[in-house]
Write a structure and sequence with these properties.
213 residues; mainly beta; SH3 type barrels
């Protein structure tokens, strides 16, 4: 018997982030992976047991409930308490690509998993699914005061996200005069105050390898 696929029902602890709340609870499922749970085609919601709901930026007490129906369209991303590795027989070889996922008010960095033997543009065009996995992930939000947190796997809502790959951080003031003595018109418009070549010279992330997610 393959428990968690088409066999025994189990309870999986999950944390769901919406644009206003953090919802923690347990979900009864026969699936092993959070992406399989969230991608069921005939469900637009999930029902959680033993739920705690916290509102971002609120000083009020958390809400506790025995059950809660959560609309999947409102979920930005989800994290399983105990993520599992895929069963070898079900693995599809894919290539990991370092990416930044913008899903306001949050940002996520990590590895998305793309079909092999394609250039990056084509691979992104073929990336489909309601909730997609990001491995070796870090998420944070400056606007709601959520500190950077790392986790093995995040499932993010594809319809709410923008995916940037590969990506690099840049100085938004690069090339713009910000006042007396701060002009970049010194003959090297990309130079920063430390004599470097500026953020625009940072190497792009291109961490390709093999993955089987």
């Amino acid at each position: 018997m393959l428990s968690g696929i088409a066999g025994d029902e189990q309870r999986l602890g999950v944390t769901l982030y919406t644009d206003a709340f953090v919802v923690r609870g347990q979900i009864a499922t026969r699936h092993r992976r959070i992406t399989d749970i969230l991608n069921q085609p005939d469900h637009d919601f999930v029902v959680l047991n033993d739920v705690t709901l916290d509102e971002f930026g609120s000083r009020s007490s958390a809400v506790r409930a025995e059950f809660a129906q959560i609309n999947l369209a409102a979920v930005l991303f989800a994290i399983a308490d105990n993520p599992v590795q895929p069963i070898p027989e079900l693995r599809t070889p894919k290539i990991p690509e370092q990416a930044l996922i913008s899903i306001p008010p949050f940002k996520i960095t990590g590895r998305i998993h793309l079909l092999p033997e394609r250039d990056l543009r084509d691979a992104l065009e073929e990336l489909t699914g309601r909730f997609l996995p990001v491995t070796d992930a870090t998420y944070w939000s400056e606007s709601v005061g959520e500190a950077r947190t790392s986790t093995q796997l995040i499932a993010f809502n594809h319809s709410r996200a923008q995916i940037l790959a590969p990506h690099r951080e840049v100085d938004p003031w690069e090339g713009i005069s910000r006042g007396p003595g701060e002009s970049t018109a010194s003959g090297n418009p990309g130079a920063d105050d430390f004599g470097g070549s500026g953020a625009g010279a940072w190497p792009e992330a291109d961490l390709r390898g093999s993955s089987e997610f």
